[in-house]
Amino acid sequence: MIDKQILKDLTVLYAEDEEAIQNGITETLNLFELNVICAKNGEEGLSIFKSSNKKIDLILTDIKMPKLDGLEMIKKIREIDKDIPVIITTAHQETTFLMQSIELNISAYVLKPIDIYKLQDNLIKAIEPKVLKEQLIEKNKKLQIEIQKNEEKQKVMEIQSRFAAMGEMISMIAHQWRQPLASIGTASFNLKYKLLSGKFDLTTKEGREEQTSFFTNKLDEIEFYVQNLTATIDDFRDFYKTDKIFIDTNIEKPLQNSLKIIQKDLQANNIEVILNHKSKKNIRVCENEITHVFINILKNAKDKFLEKNANDAKIEISTQDLDNSVKIDIYDNGGEIEKENIDFIFEPYFSTKKEKNGTGIGLYMSKIIIENNHNGKIYVSNTKGGVCFSIILESV
Ligand SMILES: Nc1ncnc2c1ncn2[C@@H]1O[C@H](COP(=O)(O)OP(=O)(O)OP(=O)(O)O)[C@@H](O)[C@H]1O
Ligand SMILES: [Mg+2]
Question: Per the domain annotation, does 137 fall within a domain?
């Protein structure tokens, strides 16, 4: 229920030809904290309404007035504004205007002498739909602004997450490339050394064949490593593509993609990865996004192992089919998440690695990807002295 406060600061156009009545009622209306604009007859009322520039919220009018009567005035006002609430005051109960008042969409009529409580009630009832509508419009506007702000925030986060991921990518490429680059270096050094030190007797057929075979082997080795470097770049490029193409696939594919990208890094830090893949069903996924989620989780485990300087570091990934879905568990044995933190790890910007430039959006983005973009579920639990991230995706 709306209270009397809604009348506060609203503007009423009040048309009444009897000055004494008009003065008395105006005083009362002022007591209700309404602004009142008075007109002596219908003609003046109409002219005030036309020049009011929509500032009038409600019309209160007598019927019998010189020049233009109340109903004629309202008829003309209705041509301009179909909705403005109108209350009629009348000296006696007339039935002739009742039909017309229905046509003119009159909110109420008040008998003279005017009972101010009834007038107040009718004013409130008349204005209520308009105020409610305006409040709704206002709320809607605010909601729209909120939605827009959220969308913008989301975009900024996606960009931040991509930047963070690009930083990751560079460090992972560096890892992946270190070994093949070192091997290329060694092969080319050996070639140069053998060539310059005259190790091959080029005067004999055997010597020439030996040199050809040595060179061919080394060049094959170099070619192999160059292919390896190229493959790494292709893997990363595919992964960082922004297009969202959904395909039906077994979960093994995005899992293997993510391992391809991060496994060298894990191996270099003595982290053992055990894959126990049992799921046979297909799921409909955007591969890049799901790969991203696995990398986020695996990288978090790696971060923790490094932070704790853990021996015997192990990550166990298992997949299984449920009734209408596929479940993936990623467990690491690097210790549990503190109780006071566990409820917040999916929140944006929550990170316990601030001094190491942790952005705290890895898991937030992962949740968006799984729950918003794939209609799945992701959750975490402390178990067996470690942490297990579980993901459930609908099967097709
Ligand atoms: N496997 C895990 N074991 C323990 N704590 C974890 C694990 N995974 C995540 N966390 C906690 O969740 C927090 C949020 O992780 P999230 O990936 O969102 O951000 P971050 O890793 O801190 O930052 P960034 O991903 O940018 O490096 C981490 O700071 C960490 O405290
Ligand atoms: Mg992280």
Answer: no
